[in-house]
Amino acid sequence: MEPKVRLVKRSASPGPRICSPPPGLTSCCPDSGGRSPPGTRVGCGLISACKAPGNAVYTVLVEDSASLRRRARRRSCEDGAGSKGSRLQQQPLFQKSPTHCNGKAVPGEGEPVNGRPRHLSDPLVLKRPEEEGVALRLLDQTPLHQSAHIPVPRQRKLSEKAGIDEVIAAVVLTSLSTSPVVLNNPPNGLGTEPTCDAWKEGPAMSSSYSSSSNNSGEWSWDPPSDLSNPSTPSPPLTADVSTSFLSLHSDLEETEASHFLFGDPIPRKRKNSTKVMFKCLWKNCGKVLSSSSGMQKHIRTIHLGRKADLDQSDGEEDFYYTELDVNVDSLTDGLSSLTPVSPTSSVPPAFPILEEEVLQTPAVPLKPEVPMVPPLSQSAHMTILSQSAPTSLCHIQTDHAYQATGPAGLLTDVKSPSTGMEISISWQPPPLFPPPLPPVLFKSPSGCLTPIRPADIGEKRPQVPALPIAKGHALVPSSMPKPAAGTRKPRGEAKKCRKVYGMENRSMWCTACRWKKACQRFVD
DNA sequence: AGTGCCGGGGT
DNA sequence: ACCCCGGCACT
């Protein structure tokens, strides 16, 4: 398995929250014999950071904020019932992760903190120095695990500074390898230097692992709020946040997959004009505030019924609101300002790591619940689809090709002769995808069919999606006229069995012609 | 009118 | 799956 980094993002921060292990808290499981299987969960359930004597290795898992919240809620329920088994395997996003901790929970996970079940937002602090020492020793004994790691140059010191350096290195690596902002927008994004600076100086960031009033001491990283991070779409407004995220996630993955499968460049638009808002996810609330503290206060006072002036926060509010990347431009569109996802969020960064993940990840059914993406994004996304998916569609030619496909979707086997790779793709145009152009559009004024008629492109049925590409239409306006459902394809120009053999030799016709189906013998 | 073939039905 | 045909669009 190749090195892999997954970005972690959390709820209360604008943009991704990259969780890296605090020094001494790398998450090798003490109860796993010193081995540190990837997927090991630290207290926050996010990080796997394993170290070997020869190498310091980090694995940063990604978990979406929605599932974090769900897990948090679930755990808070299940812990009461004494269930401490790891539920990581139940998370689809983690299915690729090998076993972790032999199914045992990391020590400290789920344990009460301050008399209450441990919260996800609780700071990951090893209370006693000996704990830290033990943890580090265990880390040192940990052999290098072979999977899902990014090797970091060895720097094995027990000092806290060294630990911080490693953490910073991990964060930098993570940022470099996952953040398109970093790659494409160094002035605004977090380059290596800015990352470190932000790490040290960022206001929303804790350099220590003790509690702070605002973030409940989460060991986290909060990028500046004026950064839009296209790779981390915010949860949508719907109640089923996780589902929506999954759909988004799959959205990304599908886009990514098609992008890599077909080698088309993904337009990487950067938008700096985004403002991070915070939206209350409490049922029937939906209040949007501009500051996380305000939102926490709102939830605390309005929904949790706590004292407003009580600045004490246990972080529970984190689970009831989410951050929105609001496009400033779209703010002028009235209600559309509440659109939770910035348009560029749907355009994933193109990285080999993601590619690998995409290829390994089974596609999640795309089921958008809410038109979360503004029209611009939608068209962009559709552009990707229109550029990538249909271009490589090769129809299976069978003797009964007329039975192969219907007009709505395509079930296609894309076979690459050069690599021998065989990919089975089921592609279906999104609901708003511009339908195939009606044949009349390809007629010249004289009425003659142009050489790029659908029938000329390949076989008969796949003509449809390949049209825009063949014509070089990268962007097909979604306002394209929708052909009638029963649009017949233009008549082929090749001679058919009837003409060739004549009615008297009907027995010589191909079966399709005999059955009054599309001729198989003389395909256009 | 001739042709191509979609959609549907029968076996 | 195979076979047939009504009916439609197009030439």
From TrEMBL:
This is SLC2A4 regulator. Residues 278-308 form the C2H2-type domain. GO terms for molecular function: DNA-binding transcription factor activity; RNA polymerase II cis-regulatory region sequence-specific DNA binding; zinc ion binding. It comes from the Eukaryota. Keywords: DNA-binding, Metal-binding, Nucleus, Transcription, Transcription regulation, Zinc, Zinc-finger. GO terms for biological process: regulation of transcription by RNA polymerase II. It is found in: Nucleus. GO terms for cellular component: nuclear speck. Residues 69-126, 183-240 are annotated as: Disordered. Its main location: nucleus. Residues 206-231 have a biased composition (Low complexity). Residues 86-100 have a biased composition (Polar residues). It comes from Salvator merianae (Argentine black and white tegu).
